[in-house]
Amino acid sequence: MLESMGPLTGSPWIYAIVAISVIFDVFLPILPSGVLVITAATAAAAGTGAATGQVPHDVPDILALILCAATASVLGDFCAYRLARRGGARFDRAIARSRRLTSAQARLGSALARGGGPLVVIARFAPAGRSLVSLGAGAAQRRNRDFLPWSALAGIAWAGYSVGLGYVGAQWLGATWLAAGVSLLALFGAGAAAAYLMRRPVASTTG
User: Fold this and answer.
1) Is 87 helix (H, G, I), strand (E, B) or coil?
2) Distance between CA 10 and CA 43 in Å, rounded?
3) What's the pTM value of the predicted model, to 2 decimals?
């Protein structure tokens, strides 16, 4: 795997590529940011010598990769949140035409008002959940302090989990495409679980 991905993972530009992919997949959820992060983490595992028995130099640093992915995640969330919050009537009409965004706006607004910020963390793992929550929070005019701390926690959790999958997979199976594939299956499994939790009704706190 390292040989085929060497020109990419062996360059400092890998951090910029990861950051750009993570930032923009809040607007284009089809971007494979999770795939890229796990692939880079699998290659990074080789840098410890744990996966290959050797210590190549041209691989990403594992801590820098986590920091890069987490920071980009929060920045992308914030851009989407501010866009929706300041979008005005035109953006509100676009939200109203989407049943998923309208539902997310209503659920997230009430959840954050009750201190239900864990929904933001859960949504970070669900397919397109990050987009729905970030845009929904902005459209619902939630305050920065209600949304951003949870967005930061979500970014750290997602980045740590994704990088950890790639790293541990490479330790068990070597820095191979098989390791990356198994790690991606685990990431998709977490996404399916998150999507299921997001569809569940928010428990009422009254009574």
Assistant:
1) coil
2) 9
3) 0.79
Residue pair 25/78 in contact by the 8 Å Cβ criterion: no
d(CA 52, CA 48): 9
The answer to whether 183 and 39 have CB atoms below 8 angstroms apart is no
Q: Where are the beta strands (DSSP E) in 65-104?
A: none
| Residue 150 to residue 173: CA distance in whole angstroms | 34
Give the tens place of pLDDT for each residue, 9-68.
556 788 899 999 999 988 887 667 888 898 888 877 766 544 444 444 556 788 999 999
Please give the Cα distance from 28 to 105 (Å, whole number): 19
Residue 50 CA: distances (Å) to CA of 2, 58, 111, 168 = 14, 15, 43, 10
The radius of gyration of the chain's CA atoms, rounded to the nearest angstrom, is: 18
